[in-house]
From TrEMBL:
Gene3D superfamilies attached to this UniProt entry: PPM-type phosphatase domain (3.60.40.10)
Matching PANTHER family: PROTEIN PHOSPHATASE 1L, PROTEIN PHOSPHATASE 2C
UniProt-recorded name of the protein: PPM-type phosphatase domain-containing protein
Boundaries of every PPM-type phosphatase domain copy: 1-234
InterPro entries: PP2C, PPM-type-like_dom_sf, PPM-type_phosphatase-like_dom
Pfam families: PP2C
Lineage of source species: Eukaryota, Rhodophyta, Stylonematophyceae, Stylonematales, Stylonemataceae
GO MF: protein serine/threonine phosphatase activity
Length: 239
């Protein structure tokens, strides 16, 4: 709720998407750090939106974990993110065939080489995919950036958001699959596989709810972690 309302405020004041995300992540990080529980726990969110009606229609899908904020503005998509949720984009032609696809960014985990190097430079340990506090090995976390979890700050885990480069969709439509790690951690899940499934279902006439439900059990596997999936299709005609 804090992220969504603050994004709306900044966008309505005339700020661009990238500046809005930078301001909002900083404010919400300070807000969470002021909570007594933020030393040993964290709080995150997945949010999507645009400057127009699309922003409001996305708001009901913002309740889950993993920190990602996606703004659609002037036919460009910009994302700010922390943690290990992710967003897959899929450029589509007029018949909903895939032109190209991929992830908007790489998750903040120790499998991300840049993140792992940053953690190791703090003199901390990485064991079985976890950042481990060398002074207290019971203190560990599976992501390298998050709101809260202040006890891991001395290990290089921080709440500094990354802001993606704007991605344009002026000429074609673009489908987005924004999901928590409950989806992306499933075996054999790739951006290409997700995009192919999405394209096939759009061409068969499935609506977005049916597509999201399909991803709650992908390739015969059922998520064992929290799983929120947001599906959106945007075009140059989208307000």
């Amino acid at each position: 709720t804090e992220i969504l309302e603050r994004c709306k405020r900044e966008l309505e004041s005339g700020k661009g998407a990238s500046e809005t995300l930078s301001v909002v992540f900083g404010e919400v990080s300070q807000l969470i750090d002021g909570d007594d529980d933020s030393t040993e726990s964290g709080s995150t969110a997945t949010v999507g939106g645009s400057r127009g009606p699309l922003f409001r229609s996305f708001s009901y899908l913002t309740r889950d974990i993993d920190s990602q904020v996606l703004i659609i503005q002037d036919h460009r998509i910009v994302s700010g993110f922390l943690g290990d949720s992710s967003a897959c984009f899929c450029n589509l032609d007029a018949q909903s065939q895939v032109l190209d696809s991929g992830f908007l960014f790489e998750a903040h985990r120790t499998s991300n080489r840049k993140e792992a190097r940053r953690i190791l430079e703090f003199g901390c340990i990485i064991e079985e995919g976890y950042v481990v506090d060398p002074e207290n090995k019971d203190n560990a976390i599976s992501i390298t950036r998050t709101f809260g979890d202040k006890s891991m700050r001395r290990c290089g885990v921080n709440s500094e958001a990354e802001i993606s480069e704007p991605r344009s969709f002026d000429q074609n439509s673009m489908a987005l699959v924004i999901a928590t790690d409950g989806l992306w951690d499933l075996p054999k899940v790739t951006a290409e596989g997700v995009s192919a499934t999405l394209s096939r279902m759009l061409r068969s006439g499935s609506d977005h709810v049916e597509i999201a439900q399909q991803f709650s059990s992908f390739n015969g596997y059922v998520p064992t972690d929290d799983c929120t999936v947001l599906i959106a299709t945007v075009t140059a005609k989208t307000p």
